[in-house]
Amino acid sequence: MNQVTFPSLNDIRFASIRIKPFTHRTPILKSEAINQWAGCEIYFKCENFQKVGAFKARGAANAVMKLSDDQKEKGVATHSSGNHAAALARAAKVAGIPAYIVMPSNAPLIKKKAVKGYGGEIIECEPNLQARETTLNKVVKETGATFIPPYDHLDVIEGQATCALEFLEDQPDLEILMAPVGGGGLLGGTALLAHYWDPEIEIIAGEPSGADDAYRSFHAGKLIPQTHPNTIADGLLTSLGKLNFELIQRYVDDILLANDDQIIEAMRWIYERMKIVIEPSCAVPLAALLANKERFAGKKVGIILSGGNVDLEKLPF
């Protein structure tokens, strides 16, 4: 097996410049009430204010902008039930190229509307991984489009790493950096950037206990696929990517779990105290922190709020 060459710090800096015209530099917010409750100083990087409402805009924009002219002409394709679908559709629209998005029939309506709004062509399939992959392969064969995976892709990881780059440029004194983990693109990119920036920064992920394949893989030292996930954090249901698992093994210090009641409680605190909209997956790192307060006591903690695409008709409170 060939050794993978991950993006360098300069690669990530160039990615930040590349995507700057197409993304927001999102703000960092604090809440004194949450700090008192948590017993530490928390800085929230608000990717819920990002284009398409999630950090996924970064990786999709970077991957699309790095395509050759021949590749752009034939467009891009992916399978996604969520934020990557909208992010890739938007990136393709900005680039003036087609986007073919395979989505399971049970994908949230708000996310289907977003894809259509950005001009993406939705191809529906049965709600299982085999159907998604089979349908995607058919689309790629018919159109010649380039497959841009949601997370297990070097250009996507490089793009997601720009979030942590901005975070540490604006708040360089963080002792701990936290992100949620599903497929691992955000966590992998965050861990990689932090390793370059300051290896002393502790990288800790939050994961739902009802979808804990990253936690199990991390502790087993081998990739364990996700099976029958069951959690309100619908953005974290997927299995961990191979590239991302390699980064997690190298550079992540721990993965902490939170159950759905804890996730809902953390989500509600952010709504009530910070007055901002987040999706359940976004609340998982804070929920994991609050379930392990002693681990973070007195520390300066950065949390990436990953997205805000929630169906307001289905809020859990």
TrEMBL record:
Keyword Magnesium assigned: yes
GO BP annotation list: D-serine biosynthetic process
Molecular function (Gene Ontology), one example: serine racemase activity
Keywords of this entry: Lyase, Magnesium, Pyridoxal phosphate
Pfam families: PALP
Domain Tryptophan synthase beta chain-like PALP: 21-307
InterPro entries for the chain: Ser/Thr_deHydtase_PyrdxlP-BS, TrpB-like_PALP, TrpB-like_PALP_sf
Necessary cofactors: pyridoxal 5'-phosphate; Mn(2+); Mg(2+); Ca(2+)
Record SUPFAM superfamilies: Tryptophan synthase beta subunit-like PLP-dependent enzymes
Family membership noted in the UniProt record: Belongs to the serine/threonine dehydratase family.
Protein name: Threonine dehydratase
Organism: Algoriphagus faecimaris
